[in-house]
Amino acid sequence: MSTSGMSLDHALMIIAGEAAQQVGVYLRKAFRAPLEVFLKAGIHDPVTIHDRYVEARLQYLLGSAIPGSRILGEETGEHVLEKEKVAAAGALTLQQVHAACQEKSRHRLEQPLAAEEFAWQQARDDQREEAPGAGELAEAKALVKDLGKRVRWIVDPIDGTANFASGVAYFNTSIGVELDGKAVAGAVYVPYTRELFIADATNATLYEGERATAMQADNARAESEGIITGYFPFRDKNPQRVEKSWQMAARLANAYATVHSPGAGALDLAQVAAGHTAVAFGTAMRPWDVAAGIHLVRVAGGQVQTFQTRYNREDPEHLRGAFVASARDLDPVTARAAVEQFIRAFQ
Questions:
Q1: DSSP string, 278-300
Q2: Assigned architecture for domain 223-344
Q3: What's the rounded Cα separation, in Å, for the pair 319 and 317?
Q4: Spatial contact of 156 and 30, defined as CB atoms under 8 Å apart
Q5: How many C-beta atoms lie closer than 10 Å to residue 116's C-beta?
Q6: Residue 145 and residue 164: Cα distance in Å, rounded?
Q7: What is the pTM of this model?
Q8: pLDDT in tens, 42-79
């Protein structure tokens, strides 16, 4: 990564990537430790104290880098990172988050918390000199510190919470970045494998330790040769929706080499950007599920088509959670038709 003539989008990418890696230090320690799982909308929408704790830490890290910037987070919604909110987020303790979750759920946990507080000593800049982007962090912060509300961070602290809570390593922290309403950067960090998928406005790179690989979304050229990933809402109160889900799965299974539902939308998209899989799709994901991932695919040269639904019509095109993303030389005709048909059935 060059440190000369740094652009705004590159600086924002560096800050997003460093923040995701820093909270990844904590998530590696918390992963597979005993924890309590709460439910938000239902059984398919779990949340842990770590989701809320990590989002608070991201507010602190990102708000400290650009005071007055905006954030759209899965756990706290959209708000401005004003000085007082940033300070409060930085001071929030894991015990306070746990107490708030228990009060809201009316459930008491008898055992003490197993996870420790955020490991700041392991995340300090001077101890992370070899981490991707760490050497450019000071310059990046100096360049963008006065951008304020022009910047919006779209954050998913733990994308794949159900996996994280179950001890499955397919989860990540996802940060998409807008400047003046336009997507300009994205970072998807996988704490367990230490993979960093990252992009500014022009270049996308996968970092695996010291190895850096330019992402070019180069995979299958025919649907039958490729892996497709997505989320299937099989369990639903509406039996017609369940039936449509299975019909869509059968249609895709007949067209693609393999169909997977790994359970983390941002990481599914990052895999397409890196050329590991051919197609990723979604029908009802939220902006924080796709903000970084859609940007990664497009910068890497892949294709993304989004669809307007009654649930996302207020969202900008690059944040719509109904989408089909594919490798650069693949026309995902079956996936696109299946998603369109599924969406039309429930407009």
A1: SEEEEEEE-HHHHHHHHHHHHHT
A2: 3-Layer(aba) Sandwich (3.40)
A3: 5
A4: no
A5: 11
A6: 33
A7: 0.91
A8: 444 456 888 989 999 999 999 999 999 999 999 899 99
